[in-house]
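Translate sequence into structure tokens.
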Amino acid sequence: MSSFSDSELISRAILHDDRNAFGELVRRYQSNVRNLLRKLTAGDHAAADDLAQETFIRAYRHLRTFQGGATFATWLYRIAYNVFLSSVRDKKNEEPEEVMENAIEHAGYQQTNRMLAKLDLEKAMVNLSEMERASIALSYGRELPHEEIARVLNCPLGTVKTNVLRGKEKIRQKLLMLYKQELV
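Result follows.
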């Protein structure tokens, strides 16, 4: 199955109800979807895994609506982003500190410089708006061009560029503040 293109697998899944074909699509994209959702959830691996599962369930249910105007990956990232937004709406009253505590707990906090830097970055990303966080995660985490991000987020290209710039500046300011506190 791995020699088939995405479009061939999609056709097999739709026309022949071939669950193995869809399973191959899941295998191809599950790491990318999980990584995107981990960035969007500020490192909460358990939440990201749950959201990834929901993403693939929705993708399977709505596979017939995929029209090929964008790549399958873009369509899948759009679903993942919508699943993430739904989860955020459900947790609106949770404070950013609680989100960070959960992220640290689920990440299996280890005392290494790399892990600490990653946690600082995740802590800084908690302060971003959902659109800024998504724009940063797709731009730097998935290395998508801004035009593709605009399609995933269903917003104008200029908005994506603004969100990336604002997000980077907010992260920079938050990291400066965190590191200044450590020096004191």
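Note: The chain has nine helices and no strands.
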